Amino acid sequence: MTAAKFEDILTRLEVGPWHWFLFLLCSLWGIFGSMQTLATAFLNPAVDHWCHIPELVEANWTREQIWNVSMPRTKIGGVVQHSQCEMFVRNYTALVENTDFGADPLEEGDFEGDALVSNSEEWPVQPCSSWDYAHQTSRSTITSEWDLVCNRESLRSLIQSIFMLGVFFGSPLGGYFADRFGRKRLMTGSLWVFIVVSIVASFSPYYQLFLLCRFLMAFNGNIVYQTSYILAVEACTAKQRSIVGILFSVPFAIGYMLLPAVAYYVREWRHLHLAISLPVILLIANTILLPESPRWLIQTGKWSEAERELQRAARWNSRKSFDSTWLLSTIREMKEEADDKKAAQANREREEREEEEEEEEQYSGGQGSRVRSPTSTSSGKTSTSPKKDFLRKLFVFVRTPVLRRVSLIMSFNWITCTMVYYGLSLNFGNFSADPYLYMFLGGLMELPSYTLIIPVVMRIGRKIPLIVFLASCGVAVLVLLVLPGERNTWFFLAVVMVGKFLITSAYQVIYLYCSELYPTTLRTRGLGLTSMMGRLGAIISPFINDKLGGYHWAIPSTIFGILSMIAGTLTCLLPETNNVDLPETVADVENWKYRRDRKEKQDEEEAAAAISTDHDDLSTLTPASTSAV
Fold first, then answer.
1. Where are the domains of the chain?
2. What is the C-alpha to C-alpha distance for residues 519 and 524, in angstroms, rounded to an integer?
3. What is the pLDDT of residues 573-592, one digit of tens each?
C-alpha cells in the first residue's frame, strides 16, 4: 500500500465528527490506565507498625505506653523512634498486673525517665511475629492485610514492580499481536481479560494471586492502550498526528488527578481497587462502536471492509459518501501495488540484509574486503537460523561507533526518565507530604508538560531541551537535600513539583528524539528496544523508594538527582536532529557530522540565492515604485 494514496483518501475525508468520536473513545482508556498504574500509592502505602503484644492490647494500653515498655529505640529515616520489627522479651502479663497507672502513670511519647524502661538495655529482644498498624489515611491496606513489613517489606515494593514488568512484556507483544490479528479484535480480547482479572484481584485471598492479577492487568492494559493509540493515529493525516499525539496523553493526567479524589472517599483497599476497576466495564462500548482501522484493513488485503469503513466515515463527516468510482479505483491501485510488493518481499529482505551486513562491516573496522558469512550459500543467498537472525538484528545497534553511542546513551536516558518519573510520582511518604494533595498536584503538573513542550522542541530542537530538562530536574531534586525547614512545607512541595514537571517534560522529548536518532531501517526496532530498557527503571524505582528511603528519606532523592544530571551530561554527546534530514541507513548515522554540515551549507546557499533574487527584483524598481512598496 502506498502511504501517499491512503493519505489522499484521508485528506478527502477531512476532519469531522468521525475522527473526534474515534479519538474520544480511544483516549478514554488513559483515565483508567493512569489510575491503575499509580494505584499502589493508596493500595499499599508505607504504614507505621509495631509488634503486637496481646497482653498490653487487651489491657487497653495506649500505643505510646506499649512503645515505652516493649520496643527498643531505633533510627528510622534519620529519626529516632520505636522499633518496628523487634520487641523486648518480658513477662507482659506480670507487667500488666503489677502496673498501677494511677500511682505511676506512663507519659505518652516518653522513651526516657520511666521506671519501666530504665533498664531496657539489659532486656533481650526478639523479632515480631505479628504487628499492629497505625492507619492514617486508610482503614485497611495491602501492607497491613498481608503483613508486608520488616523482612517481608520487599514484597510490598514488588507489587508495583510486577505491574511494570507486565508493561515491559506487554509493549512488544502488543504491537506484534495488533499487526497480526487487528487493532479492534486485540483490544476487545485484552479489555475483557483486564476486566475479569481486575475484579478477581479485588477479592483475592492470597498475595500470590493478587500479584499474578496485577501482572496480567498491566500486560493487557498496556495492549489496550497501544491498540487504542494506534487506532486513533492511523485515522489521521500526517499533519493531524502531532495534535492527536499530544491530546492523547491528556486523559492520563485527568486519571492521575482523579485517583486521589476516589481514594479520599474509599479507604478500604479492596473497595478502592474495585472502584477504579469496575468503571472499565464502560469501555465495552468501544468494542461495539469503534471501527477497525481502515489502514490495517487495506494493509492486510481486506479491501471491501476497508471501503465500507471509509464510506461510513465520509457519511459521518460530510453526510455524503465518497465518490465510489474514485474510491474503488484508488483501492484497486493500492491492491495491485500490494500484490507486487508481496511478490518482491523475499528479494527486498535479502537485499536489505546484505546492505546492513556491508554497512556493519564497513564501520566495524573492515579492511575493505568482504568476508563471506559462514551461513552464506554458494548462490549468494543468506540462510540463517531464526536465533542467529535475531541476534544479528539485535547486535546491529552496538556494532558501529555512533549507533552504539546512540543506543547506550538513549537506553540510559530511558531508564533514568522512568525511574525518576515513577520515583517522584509515588514518593510522598519520604517527602512527608499529604498523599492526596501530592498526587493531585503531580497529575496537574502533567498537563503543561504535554502541551508546552511542543513549541519548545519545534523552535529550539530536541537535544538542548532534553539536556536542560534532565539537568534541571537533577538540580531541583538535589536542592531538596539542603532546603531549610521541615519536609511538610509548601516550599518543599513546590520544589518537588518543579522536579516532577521537568522529568515529565523530558519524558515527552525523549520519545520524539529517540525516534529521530535511529535510521529508517532500524527506527521502529530502536525505539522499541530502548523504551523497553526504560521499563527497567520503573521496575527498580519502588525498591529505591521503599528500601533505601526506609534508611533515610534523602537517599532516593540523591539517586534520582545524580542519575538525572548524568543523563543530561551524556546527552551532550548526541547529535541534534531538528531541521536535519532523518538518517535512512546506518551509514547516514555514522556520517552525521558530515550530513549536518552539508545541510547547513545547503541552507546557507538557499538563503544567499534568496537574497540575490530579492536584490535583483529591487534593482528593477524605479524610485517611485520603491517608495510605494
1. 1-47+134-336, 49-82, 400-615
2. 9
3. 998 888 777 777 788 888 87
